[in-house]
Each structure stands twice: as structure tokens, then as C-alpha cells.
Design the sequence.
């Protein structure tokens, strides 16, 4: 009978303590704030579930949550198919493989606040290269600081430029792991390109695409820095996503109780939808 070396737990304990310090303790602090009211000087008064009821029945929360789901839905609909198409177009061998991989990885290396500032300058209607080109060369009335539709198009385009590379790299990793024997058998059977994609490439990419969708959902659903730097949630509240609204409530208005309750509801929604995504995409594997 094989014995288990329990001393390996000593290698894991530092990580557990680090996670407890960086996650569990702040989480408990947020839970504490979410059920109390404070008026300064560390004077707390029991509020119970009042803040949760206030947030869940708030039109402001519903509007921000709707904008967040709309943003995340558009991101997934655009970036996942686009990433697969680009991965399919990339070479499998030769000199251009590392070149393409480096080019794909470059956008992800840029810090989030720099991405927002860069696209802000790039799209300004009078001094931005893209904004000036659209307004003065093509004659398109484009101003993301005044037009909500232009602001939405800008933040979506910015995120697609920044994060489609993640889907590309994961999909490409799935593609290059497919043995050549599958393609040879498909060629012998006279399978079309669509048949090869549907019955060979897509099933073999299922696991990496599951990871890509989960990562892109969680990241886009909790995005804050890029859209805040780019639009500040404007014009008006048209691009005020749930994360931006939460920061405004916590730091701008200093409503710590409602903000703590909102953050826990936000976390629960993210966790629940991620679990739903994972369950639906892996249900065939579990049967």
C-alpha cells in the first residue's frame, strides 16, 4: 500500500496563510461593513440586511448591472469567434510562428491604465489620430465625450484590441496540440474545411475555449481601470459599469455600508455566472 507523505503540506501552508491574509480577512471586513452603518470615528451601528435590500431594489444598481452584462456579452460575442478565426489563420510552423505569437502577446503586456489613457488620447475628436481622421477626413460625427453610442463603440473596440490576444493564444495552443493523424484521416475521407473545424478542431479546443470564456467573462465583468480612464463612466452615466458605480459609491460618496453590500452581491453574481458557464460547457464531460 502506497503511503502518503504528509510533510508536503508544509509546502502548502505558506500559500494558505497568504491567501487567508489577502482574501479571507479583507472579505470578513467587507461582510462586517455590509451589515453596519458608520458615522465616522469608528462608531458602528447594526444595520442588518438593510443595505442588501436597498441595493437589490435600487434602480441605479439595476441600470449599472444591465450595462455590465451588455458590455460583457458584447465582449464575449466578439472576442471569442474573432480569437478563433485569428488562431486558425496563424502559421503552425516556420519563421512566422514566433513573430505572430509575440505580436499577439504585445497588447496584453501594456498596463491597464496606460491602455485607457492611450485610447483616450487616440480617440479625442480634435487632437486624437483616430478621432480627427473620423471627423475631418471621413466626415463622421464622432465624439465619445458627447455621444453615448460613440463611447460604447470606443470601450468595446479598446477591449477587443487589448484582450482578443488572450483568446487567440489559448485557441492556438489547442490547435497545435491536435495530432497530424487527425488531419490525414480527414483528408483521406475528403472532409471539407468546415467539417475539419467542426468535428476535429473545435472539439479539441473545447477545454482551452472553456478557460478562455471563463477568463474573459470574469475579467470583462469586473473591468474598471480601462473604461474609467477612457470615459470616466460618461457621457452622463452611459458607460458607468457596475465596477465604476461601486467605486463611486465607496470612495466618491463614502457610503461604506451600501458599497460593501454591493461588492458582495457583485462577487456572488460573478461567482454564480462563472459556475453556470463552467457547468454548461463541461456537462458532456461529466456524463
Sequence:
Amino acid at each position: 500500500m502506497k503511503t502518503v507523505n504528509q510533510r508536503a503540506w508544509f509546502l502548502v501552508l505558506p500559500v494558505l496563510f497568504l491567501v487567508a491574509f489577502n482574501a479571507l480577512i479583507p472579505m470578513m471586513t467587507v461582510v462586517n461593513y455590509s451589515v453596519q452603518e458608520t458615522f465616522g470615528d469608528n462608531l458602528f451601528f447594526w444595520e442588518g440586511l438593510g443595505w442588501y435590500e436597498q441595493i437589490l431594489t435600487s434602480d441605479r444598481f439595476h441600470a449599472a448591472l444591465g450595462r455590465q452584462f451588455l458590455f460583457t456579452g458584447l465582449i464575449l460575442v466578439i472576442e471569442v469567434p474573432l480569437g478563433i478565426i485569428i488562431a486558425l489563420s496563424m502559421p503552425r510552423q516556420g519563421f512566422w510562428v514566433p513573430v505572430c505569437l509575440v505580436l499577439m502577446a504585445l497588447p496584453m503586456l501594456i498596463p491597464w491604465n496606460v491602455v485607457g489613457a492611450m485610447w483616450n488620447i487616440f480617440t479625442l475628436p480634435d487632437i486624437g489620430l483616430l478621432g480627427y481622421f473620423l471627423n475631418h477626413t471621413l466626415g463622421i460625427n464622432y465624439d465619445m465625450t458627447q455621444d453615448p453610442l460613440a463611447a460604447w463603440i470606443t470601450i468595446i473596440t479598446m477591449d477587443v484590441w487589448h484582450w482578443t490576444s488572450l483568446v487567440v493564444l489559448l485557441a492556438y495552443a489547442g490547435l497545435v496540440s491536435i495530432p497530424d493523424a487527425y488531419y490525414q484521416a480527414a483528408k483521406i475521407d475528403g472532409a471539407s474545411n468546415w467539417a475539419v473545424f467542426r468535428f476535429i478542431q473545435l472539439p479539441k479546443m473545447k477545454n482551452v475555449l472553456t478557460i478562455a470564456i471563463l477568463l474573459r467573462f470574469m475579467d470583462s465583468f469586473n473591468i474598471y481601470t480601462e473604461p474609467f480612464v477612457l470615459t470616466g463612466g460618461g457621457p452622463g452615466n452611459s458607460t458607468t459599469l457596475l465596477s465604476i458605480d461601486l467605486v463611486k459609491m465607496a470612495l466618491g460618496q463614502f457610503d461604506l455600508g451600501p458599497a460593501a453590500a454591493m461588492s458582495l452581491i457583485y462577487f456572488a453574481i460573478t461567482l454564480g455566472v462563472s459556475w453556470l458557464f463552467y457547468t454548461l460547457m463541461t456537462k458532456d464531460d461529466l456524463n
In short: The CA atoms of residues 105 and 206 lie 22 Å apart. The mean pLDDT is 89. Residues 59-89 form the longest helix (31 residues). The beta strands are 36-38, 44-46.
